[in-house]
């Protein structure tokens, strides 16, 4: 339950500019998660969410800052979400557990993996575009290494 709720939190803050814990709690309730403000507060702390400036001087929750991009949380998300990877020319197709493609793609984008131009995510599939077809195996190996390091 906790894992699913935290994955939903990541998805929500990536989709919407969520400014308060109350707003996050409301959106989680809409998704069917019955939880409390105290639990959301702990989740925010555990996920190491930060607030970043948005428009009109407002701030919204965001994933870790760029300095922290290669941390244990990102690796854990990838290790728990990714089911398989397959290369097709300069495209890496990543299958994830249902509902985790967007969060995983955001992690991959944030990690700025050398040779990966960008990602497009659906519900359980991510399309990663590589600069060229020769870089794909290197990127796959790097992702696999991150996933293994999360288990330590």
UniProtKB/TrEMBL annotation:
Domain Arginine repressor DNA-binding as annotated: residue spans: 2-67
Location of the protein in the cell: Cytoplasm
Matching Pfam families: Arg_repressor, Arg_repressor_C
UniProt keyword DNA-binding present: yes
Arginine repressor C-terminal domain: residues covered: 78-144
Recorded GO MF terms: arginine binding; DNA binding; DNA-binding transcription factor activity
Family of the protein in this entry: Belongs to the ArgR family.
Protein name stated in the entry: Arginine repressor
Gene name for this UniProt entry: argR
């Amino acid at each position: 339950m906790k894992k699913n709720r935290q994955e939903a939190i990541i998805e929500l803050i990536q989709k919407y500019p969520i400014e308060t814990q109350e707003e996050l709690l409301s959106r989680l309730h809409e998704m069917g998660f019955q939880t409390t403000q105290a639990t959301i507060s702990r989740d925010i702390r555990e996920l190491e969410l930060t607030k970043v400036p948005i428009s009109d001087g407002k701030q919204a929750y965001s994933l870790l800052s760029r300095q922290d991009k290669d941390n244990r949380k990102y690796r854990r998300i990838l290790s728990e979400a990714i089911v398989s990877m397959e290369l097709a020319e300069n495209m890496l197709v990543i299958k994830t557990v249902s509902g985790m493609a967007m969060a995983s793609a955001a992690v991959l984008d944030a990690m700025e993996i050398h040779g990966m131009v960008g990602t497009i995510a659906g519900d359980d599939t991510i399309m990663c575009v590589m600069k060229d077809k020769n870089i794909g195996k290197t990127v796959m190996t790097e992702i696999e290494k991150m996933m293994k390091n999360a288990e330590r």
